[in-house]
Amino acid sequence: MRAYNFSAGPAILPEEVLKEAAAELVDYQGTGMSIMEMSHRGKEYSAIHDECIANIKELLNIPEGYSVLFMTGGASTQFPLIPMNLLGEGQTADYTDSGAWASKAIKEAKMLGNINVAADCGKEIPTRVPAVDELNLTDGAAYLHITSNETISGAQWKVFPEHECLIADMSSDILSRPLDVSKFGLIYAGSQKNLGPAGITLVIIKDELAERCPDTVPTIMRYKTHIANNSLYNTVPTFPVYMLCLVTRWLKALGGLEGMQKLNTEKAGKLYDCIDGTDFYTGTAVPEFRSNMNVTWRLANEDLEPVFIEEASKRNLKTLKGHRSVGGIRASIYNAFPEEGVDALISFMAAFEAKHS
Amino acid sequence: MRAYNFSAGPAILPEEVLKEAAAELVDYQGTGMSIMEMSHRGKEYSAIHDECIANIKELLNIPEGYSVLFMTGGASTQFPLIPMNLLGEGQTADYTDSGAWASKAIKEAKMLGNINVAADCGKEIPTRVPAVDELNLTDGAAYLHITSNETISGAQWKVFPEHECLIADMSSDILSRPLDVSKFGLIYAGSQKNLGPAGITLVIIKDELAERCPDTVPTIMRYKTHIANNSLYNTVPTFPVYMLCLVTRWLKALGGLEGMQKLNTEKAGKLYDCIDGTDFYTGTAVPEFRSNMNVTWRLANEDLEPVFIEEASKRNLKTLKGHRSVGGIRASIYNAFPEEGVDALISFMAAFEAKHS
């Protein structure tokens, strides 16, 4: 039986995608080789690489002048790469602090340049991200960095600030909703939540920004190197790109990002309604900033939380434990998480409440 | 039919390993999840992570005081990380130039510190690596860097130089032969040749070296961060580690690195004998430095090389084309390449010679 896997990442993948990958894992389309065994410059892998980029451009309606890159090292590696590439000497960059991930990005950037924290609600409970009108921006800042969705706290930007160079860590909500990419200078996302297995970092960058990078930055750490080489400067992790390609096909077949947003709003909406319908559960995030990807809540009696997690697990509702730094309950319901799993969780929550109140 | 895949990397994997991965790709051991969908901190993946490290320590007989790390970005990312972590201000590091990969490492290091090229045979034809007694070493150098096997030219170090801090890029021959790890300060290898699919970089480091790293280096770029966090500072590419774990089990079952060395010497020996037995073919590397992993040669009539490659491909002998920068023929016969594939190549070479001479 397939588990309802609420893991925050690495996370659930579409079952169809897994089955397709399994079926051709040993022999990719009659070649006598696994896709994993093929040169990253050979014709079979090249077709996948290029299709994956084309699908992402289509899904996000990415305008001319932007590149789609496959990099490595997760979002945590982008934290230093962004200032190394884009923050000139003497310049300041603005960052918003909205929680654990934003504050990690800030910490790394501070080691490399002048950073202004334009808004800080990183430690507020109930959790939230900053409102667009409370940002204290620097004139002439090199860029403004936000974290579009805080995976740990479950808060999400619903409206984005306007900025000449807006940069967003979208690790936990990329491809979950339509996006006007032209409003961004750079978007990045680790692959292991909404994209595929862990192992690549998707970067969408306005090409002209990459020219800012000083020559003192090591070749492989420059965005312009990856742009110039179509992400093939060195061996790209081919299997995660292949998996992402299958996921993009699946997304297109489901109606693209409009279709996905509708489904995600429905799934999250049901779960928040369930939480709001009783004092037994309390949502962790301020309602207007609630994430559609990571739904977080507490039990009025926190001592019951481990019991909740354990009983849920016995009913095939897996990995509901909140992040080790904050506790509580977290249901990560990314694109690939099926609606019937949300329904099963809601039924369980009602039964659990009836039993324990 | 399974192809005889001579790709230099990503490269052939053991068929048994691929079949095992395919069989449990959708449902890992009855959990209802793929291994790719599981948290990198959950119990199933943790068991694989720890077993993989233990197996590598066992296979290489790694002494106390060393850590086995899974990093990302390939060998090309290690090129800058090594001087960033280990080359103090005002210090010099020695590098040997033995070809394309060594010279890339040198180029990146020169951007970051004082580099002495202790020997340069990088452009010699027939190709080779430096002899141990021709190194022009710097007194008090921070380290000496070598490239244990040049994948493109097909030359390999058979005896290693002695140095207080010897660093080796072993991307194309790691785990192909027994090794005295205690003679090295740091060993690194991209995964896509002898280890598994592309996506992780294996690093074996003497822990005390990691302390050299200055605090100005971004957190994720410090070896000491990965040592302190058992390679789980951020999300590790879990699937490549899983595949590497299966490969290490396969290696252990085949008799470990002694067994592998015997097999590799036999495979390469046959092929070199075939090349040496006729003037129709000429080996590219100086015999005493010939690689057991990447066997390179030319045809006396170079115009016939494309014909050779094409006819071989029709006989299921795939990806024999030399690297685009040097041409010629290259047969990469890593650990997982079966002996019968070498035999098939040798038969084809004889038939091709008979037909075309």
UniProtKB/TrEMBL annotation, chains A, B:
The cofactors required by this protein are: pyridoxal 5'-phosphate
The entry's free-text remark on the cofactor is: Binds 1 pyridoxal phosphate per subunit.
Kindly state which reaction or reactions the protein catalyses.
Answer: O-phospho-L-serine + 2-oxoglutarate = 3-phosphooxypyruvate + L-glutamate; 4-(phosphooxy)-L-threonine + 2-oxoglutarate = (R)-3-hydroxy-2-oxo-4-phosphooxybutanoate + L-glutamate
* Entry EC number(s): 2.6.1.52
Where, in this chain's numbering, is pyridoxal 5'-phosphate bound? Answer: 75-76, 101, 151, 169, 192, 234-235
Q: What Gene Ontology cellular-component terms does the record carry? A: cytoplasm
Query: Where the protein is mainly located, per its record?
Result: cytoplasm
**Chain residues that bind L-glutamate:** 41
Any one GO biological process: pyridoxine biosynthetic process
Indicate what this protein is called per its UniProt record. Answer: Phosphoserine aminotransferase
* Species assigned in the record: Pontiella sulfatireligans
